[in-house]
Design brief:
401 residues; alpha/beta; Aspartate Aminotransferase, domain 2; Aspartate Aminotransferase, domain 1; 2 domains; 7-stranded mixed beta sheet; 3-stranded antiparallel beta sheet; 34% helix
Length: 401
């Protein structure tokens, strides 16, 4: 049996350092808001390329706290609109509605599965205060058009970086210096005017970003964990307080806050794993490249087919392959075939947010591209501990489906 994701095997590769880190925390007698969290926050901020990292309880809380902080600052208020991809995990939407803000859905690009930048402007109104873009499945979602809209309409740009730790955004600048963006997957009519600039990590591109360290993520702890990254000093201070009961000083509460803190054990585990993230992401890229070059079946649509060359020197770092997602019109049949042959697959995600019972007032809405994606996607096994034999067997079975 080839498991979709063998977390025990992954964590075994970090031994004895993981067990040593846990013992170090146990022996310290200090389990919250200590040195382990502080050191991880500093390391992760440096890795992402930002001034501030605030460890929180999970990725959803990271996004909730960002929006709550903007409301606290007076830059958003109840009923304001946030542009968000219709094709995303429900946590992205929950963060918005939890703050009594209004999600405004934009369809994805059918090739990248990320928000379609060219459909955003028509959804902007006088109540629009921000764009929350999701780097879905590990692929950078930033685009020159998003940068243009943020500047034109003075919007707050928030990244849901839960799935893309380590991915890069390859900036460009127009020759006159008036615009910026990414080496793009799209048909930008001004592409020939754009010049390459320095790469930046996802999580450093907007005003703030939410990160998840759920165990299955590329950088995962041994429970729930998350973080916010930002270069905004005031925002960082407010988020840190909001996550700690609204308090910067014990028993003095400046805000109506939450209890959302990364604990010392999880931070110590993440400190062990962070230095190897680049190596593990590169292994993921190599597996994805093998899949893309060797899966040949007329009923299977591979990631970014007919779109971009994901494995050229310019674009390969824009994707960290948290998930390798194929599409097929008869997903249940293909999944059953793979299961019968000892290959575990998962569906990310079977039901789009606007069709969930939790949001039954949206159930009559129609987002055809999103609904097609959710009806067809199937995630193949992909992790740093997959062997070459495992990968070859998966490809063989798919090609003989």
């Amino acid at each position: 049996m080839i498991n979709f994701l063998d977390l025990k095997a992954i964590n075994d590769t970090f031994e004895p350092d993981l067990s040593g880190a846990i013992k170090r925390v146990l022996d310290s007698g200090w389990y919250l808001l200590g040195h382990e969290v502080k050191e991880f926050e500093e390391s992760y901020a440096a890795f992402i390329g930002v001034k501030h990292c605030i460890g929180v309880a999970n990725g959803l809380d990271a996004l909730r706290l960002i929006l709550k902080a903007y409301i606290t600052k007076g830059e958003m208020e109840e009923g304001d609109e946030i542009i968000v991809p219709a094709n995303t995990y429900i946590a992205t939407i929950l963060a918005i509605t939890d703050n009594r803000l209004a999600p405004v859905f934009v369809e994805p690009d059918i090739l990248s599965y990320n928000i379609n930048p060219w459909l955003i402007e028509e959804r902007i109104t006088k109540r629009t205060k921000g764009i929350m873009m999701v780097h879905l499945y590990g692929q950078n979602a930033m685009n020159p058009e998003i940068g243009r809209l943020v500047k034109k309409y003075n919007l707050i740009l928030i990244e849901d970086n839960a799935q893309a730790a380590g991915a890069f955004y390859l900036e460009q600048k127009v020759k006159d210096g008036n615009s910026f963006g990414v080496i793009s997957n799209t048909n930008d009519p001004n592409q020939n005017k754009l010049q390459p600039c320095r790469p930046r990590r996802t999580g450093s591109l907007g005003n703030a970003a939410g990160h998840s360290f759920y165990p299955g993520k590329n950088l995962g702890c041994l429970g729930d964990g998350g973080a916010v990254t930002t270069n905004d000093d005031e925002l960082a201070n407010i988020i840190r307080a909001l996550a700690n009961y609204g308090s910067n000083t014990k028993y003095i509460n400046d805000y109506q806050g939450l209890n959302s803190r990364l604990d010392e054990i999880q931070a110590a585990i993440l400190k062990v794993k962070l230095p190897r993230l680049e190596t593990d992401n590169e292994r993921r890229r190599n597996i994805a490249k093998y899949y893309c070059e060797h899966i040949e079946h007329p009923d299977i649509i591979l990631p970014d087919s007919n779109n971009i060359k994901l494995f050229t020197s310019q674009t390969s770092l824009s994707h960290v392959w948290h998930l390798f997602v194929i599409r097929t019109s008869n997903r249940n049949k293909l999944q059953a075939y793979l299961t019968q042959n000892g290959i575990q697959t998962l569906i990310h995600y079977p039901i789009p947010p606007h069709k969930q019972r939790a949001y039954k007032n949206w159930n009559d809405l129609s987002y055809l591209v999103t609904e097609q994606i959710h009806a067809e996607v199937l995630s193949l096994p992909l992790s740093p501990v997959l062997s070459d034999n495992d990968i070859e067997r998966i490809v063989y079975l798919l090609n003989n489906y």
